[in-house]
C-alpha cells in the first residue's frame, strides 16, 4: 500500500528536523546522511525519496528556518546601541551557538569557513551578506539618532560593519579550536572590546 501524502510530508519534516539539529551543531562536513537518518529513526534508504543529496538537505534546512534566526529577531528590535552590542554578544557566545537547534546566518559563518562545496559557499556568502546588511542598517540608523560618536558616511559604515563581522567570525573560529576555557573567554572578550571600540561604545549600553 503506497504511503499517503500526509505521511510523506511528516517523513520529510522528521528528516529536516534531525538534519537541522546536527548541521547547526557540527556543520556540513561533520554530519553524514546516516547520522541524520539515525537521529530521525528512519532507514538510510528513505533519505533519497525526499532529497537528492546532502547538499540539497542542508540548503532546505537552512532556508526553512532562516527567518526565525536569532539574527533576524535582533534585526527587528528597537534601534539602540544596546541591541547592536547584544548582536555582538550573542554571536560571540559559543555556548549559545552550540545549544541552538536551528540554522541561522551566524551558524553558517562559524561552521562552514573554507568549505569546498559550491552550494555551501553560496549559502555562506548569502549568510555573510545578510548579517553585513543588518549591521550596516543598524549603524546607519543609530548614527542618524546621534547615538554613535563617529562620522556617518557610507564608506565609514561599510568599513566598520566589515571590521565588526571579521572580528566576530575570526574570534569564534579561533576560540572553537582552543581547549583552554580561560583562553577561549579571553579571546572572545578581547574581540568584543574591539567591536565596542569600533562602535565608539565604551561598555554595553543599558538604554
Note down, in words, how this protein is organized.
Helix 1 packs across helix 2. By secondary structure, this protein is an all-alpha fold. The chain folds into 2 domains: 59 residues, Arc Repressor Mutant, subunit A (Orthogonal Bundle); 131 residues. The chain contains 10 helices and no strands.
Task: Looking at this protein, list some descriptive labels.
207 residues, mainly alpha, Arc Repressor Mutant, subunit A, 2 domains, elongated
Q: How many distinct folded domains? A: 2
Helix count? 10
Radius of gyration, in angstroms, nearest whole number = 19 Å
Helix content: 55-70%
Strand content: under 5%
Let me know the largest β-sheet: none
Shape: elongated
Helix and strand element order: HHHHHHHHHH
Which stretches of 5+ consecutive residues score pLDDT under 50?
A: none
Instruction: Report the strand count.
Output: 0
Span from first to last CA? Answer: 62 Å
**Secondary structural class:** mainly alpha
Mean pLDDT: 81
Which SSEs are present, and which pair or pack?
Layout: H1 5-26, H2 33-40, H3 54-65, H4 70-75, H5 81-91, H6 94-99, H7 105-111, H8 118-144, H9 154-176, H10 181-199
In short:
The protein has helices at residues 5-26, 33-40, 54-65, 70-75, 81-91, 94-99, 105-111, 118-144, 154-176, 181-199.
Amino acid at each position: 500500500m503506497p504511503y499517503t501524502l500526509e505521511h510523506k510530508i511528516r517523513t520529510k519534516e522528521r528528516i529536516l528536523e534531525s538534519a537541522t539539529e546536527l548541521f547547526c551543531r557540527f556543520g556540513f562536513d561533520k554530519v553524514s546522511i546516516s547520522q541524520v537518518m539515525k537521529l530521525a529513526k528512519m532507514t538510510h534508504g528513505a533519505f533519497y525519496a525526499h532529497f537528492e543529496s546532502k547538499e540539497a538537505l542542508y540548503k532546505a534546512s537552512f532556508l526553512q528556518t532562516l527567518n526565525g534566526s536569532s539574527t533576524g529577531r535582533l534585526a527587528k528590535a528597537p534601534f539602540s546601541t544596546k541591541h547592536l552590542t547584544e548582536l555582538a554578544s550573542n554571536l560571540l557566545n559559543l555556548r549559545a551557538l552550540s545549544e541552538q537547534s536551528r540554522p541561522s546566518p551566524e551558524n553558517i559563518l562559524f561552521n562552514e569557513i573554507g568549505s569546498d562545496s559550491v552550494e555551501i559557499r553560496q549559502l555562506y556568502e548569502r549568510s555573510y551578506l545578510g548579517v553585513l546588511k543588518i549591521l550596516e542598517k543598524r549603524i546607519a540608523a543609530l548614527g542618524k539618532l546621534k547615538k554613535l560618536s563617529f562620522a556617518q558616511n557610507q564608506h565609514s559604515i561599510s568599513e566598520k560593519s566589515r571590521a565588526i563581522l571579521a572580528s566576530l567570525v575570526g574570534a569564534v573560529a579561533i576560540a572553537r579550536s582552543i581547549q583552554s576555557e580561560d583562553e577561549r573567554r579571553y579571546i572572545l572578550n578581547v574581540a568584543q572590546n574591539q567591536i565596542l571600540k569600533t562602535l565608539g561604545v565604551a561598555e554595553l549600553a543599558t538604554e
